[in-house]
Specification:
Elements: H1 7-27, H2 34-63, H3 67-75, H4 79-89, H5 102-112
Helix pairs in contact: 2-5, 3-4, 4-5
């Protein structure tokens, strides 16, 4: 069986086109793999739950009788020291948990606006 002359270039062209479409789709077209989409969805859900818990954290801080002392400690620290001190206050504990949540502590620090003038 013989193939016409145009068969070989057509097959190469189809392969190069498929590769080009795949590269363009994944880089600029917004295509994603299933595992990447699941990771993005999990991160988004975690961020949204954290944002929903910030009012609870701020309420815990407002109800704490030692609020002024703890805020003074937080005010005097920066970076990881401030984040760790925030976790030690007990304000960033999610309901049903016994330990402070690092993401919630960071979001609560932003909500407290300690650096605002």
């Amino acid at each position: 069986m013989t193939f016409p002359e145009w068969t070989k270039p057509s097959i190469y062209g189809a392969l190069v086109g498929a590769i080009a479409i795949s590269i363009i789709g994944f880089t600029w077209g917004g295509w994603t793999t299933n595992s990447n989409a699941q990771t993005m969805a999990k991160d988004f859900a975690t961020d949204e739950v954290t944002l929903a818990m910030v009012p609870l954290c701020l309420g815990n801080s407002a109800a704490d009788p030692e609020r002024t002392e703890k805020l003074a400690v937080l005010q005097g620290l920066t970076g990881f020291g401030r984040l760790n001190a925030m976790m030690d206050t007990g304000w960033a504990i999610r309901p049903g948990s016994e330990a402070s949540d690092r993401r919630l502590a960071g979001a609560c620090l932003a909500g407290l606006e300690l650096d605002a003038s």
